[in-house]
Write a structure and sequence with these properties.
Blueprint: E1 10-11, E2 22-30, E3 34-41, E4 44-50, E5 65-67, E6 75-76, E7 79-80
Antiparallel strand pairs: 1-5, 2-3, 3-4, 4-5, 6-7
């Protein structure tokens, strides 16, 4: 786990109700994971996200979906997910609001 960041749970699309998530126009770029797409759930904007084609170093999260537990209530196998007691989290917004154009300047872009 990275210090200062909440743990993120990525789940297979087959394990979520796809009819409950609506794609948003927002896309951001993370220099560690790649291009990110966002989804709303009802009125909760940016409640979920996915890296459809994550970088090779984190390929295992490609096309999985993660949910923002501060925006929606997240339950896996009947257990509500939350930060561990004493864990502090630095809010940073969607991938630190990096511009999608940075994708072209990122290491390994175009490979």
């Amino acid at each position: 786990m990275s210090p200062g960041f909440a743990p993120r749970w990525y789940v297979p699309r087959a394990d979520i109700d796809e009819s409950a998530v609506a794609p948003e126009k927002l896309r951001t770029f993370c220099p560690y994971k790649g291009l990110c797409s966002y989804y709303s759930i009802g009125d909760a904007r940016q409640a979920a996200w996915s890296y459809p084609d994550a970088y090779p170093e984190v390929r295992r999260i490609s096309n999985l979906v993660s949910f923002e537990p501060d925006v929606v209530s997240v339950h896996l196998d009947g257990v509500q997910l939350h930060r561990e007691p004493g864990q502090t989290v630095v809010a940073h917004g969607p991938d630190r609001n990096l511009d999608v154009a940075e994708l072209e300047r990122a290491p390994g872009a175009g490979s």
